[in-house]
Structures are given as C-alpha cells and as structure tokens.
Amino acid sequence: MTLALSSDQLLSTTRAVRHRLDLSRPVPRRLLEECVDLAVQAPSGRNRQRWHFVIVTDPEQRAALADVWRAGVTTPGASEPLPERDARRASVARMDRVYSGTAHLYAHLHEVPALVVPCVEGRTDHAPVLRQAGTWGSILPAAWSFMLAARARGLGTCWTTGNLVDERESARVLGIPYDDVMQAALIPVAYTLGTDFRPAPRISRDRVLHWDQF
C-alpha cells in the first residue's frame, strides 16, 4: 500500500511512531527493500556510498538486539536531563508523550516486526568536526529517506539510539565489524495503527531562521 501524500504532507507528517506501531502485522520484505532502494538515492559525501542497512526480522535476533537497546536506555547517564532551553521548546506535555512512548518501546521493542540499523563505513571517534560532518552526512540523509519511504508505504518509524550506548555489543549481536563500521541508530519499522498523522507543533520560524549572520 502506498499512501496518496503530497511531498509537503510526507515531509510534515513523518512522525516518530511509538504507541501506534502495529505489532501484529508482518512487514513484507519487498517493502523494506523498496525503502532501501530509495534510501541509497540520497546524497553521499564524495559519492562514496559507504552506507549499510542491517534489517532484523528474525525473532531471536530481534529479542537479542532489543535487550542491548534496553540495557542502553537504562544505563546511568545514558540520557541526560533536557537543558532548560530545550525543555521550554519541547513543552512538558509533549515530553510526557515522548517518555510514555519510550516506555512503550521498552516493553515491546522485541515485538516490532522489523528493526533497522543504518550504518556507515568509517568511525568518527575523536575525529575533527570536518570528518564527522562528512561521515554523518553520508548516512543520515539516507536513513531519513528510508523513513520517508516507509511513511509513504503506510509504515511507521522512530529514530532511537539506545543500541549505541554499548555499540560493541550491538555489533557483536549483528555481526557488524565494529572497528570498520559505525552504527547510526536503531529504527523500529511496522505498519501503523491508522495513518492520520498530522504536522507537529514546532517553535516559530523566526526563532530558527537567520539571514546573513546568526
């Protein structure tokens, strides 16, 4: 199923889906492959195309990866309190929904039909900003394109990073060569319960747009 969405609707309604992931409906391999085909049309630094997508659908592998993620999100210090300026932007009410959604994922991550781990060849540990920007800029656009392609097909996604707290263990579970390949996220993928997603409240344009200088 492909949703009839304009480009503006697609960009403004691709939400972080947690509570509304359909845990009972398998996601066809064909759809996930289509999303990867579109993802790798994203720009890549120097056209190196060092991206990889590890898609986990085997129940035992999902359970093992979910355990690494749960350990990560509960590691002391893994999630710092929001600075005051960020809390003001997010608002308490919406952050309550974020925390509730995280708790829901904590309980059900292993049940999500597909877990996608976007990766990129080359590590940026202690690298200068220029190298970091080039490396992350070669995987994040592709991962976002994957999420947009999923939304267009009636699938929900959510950017999570709990697997990165102990990235070595996550790499061990998935057979990723840690010294050569860096993980960027863990993205749950499932059909959504309903498709009526709307644009989210955001801070006003005049607070983020700068002309000629900051």
From TrEMBL:
SUPFAM superfamilies: FMN-dependent nitroreductase-like. Keywords: Oxidoreductase. Residues 15-189 form the Nitroreductase domain. Gene3D superfamilies: NADH Oxidase (3.40.109.10). InterPro entries: Nitroreductase, Nitroreductase-like. Belongs to the nitroreductase family. This is Nitroreductase family protein.
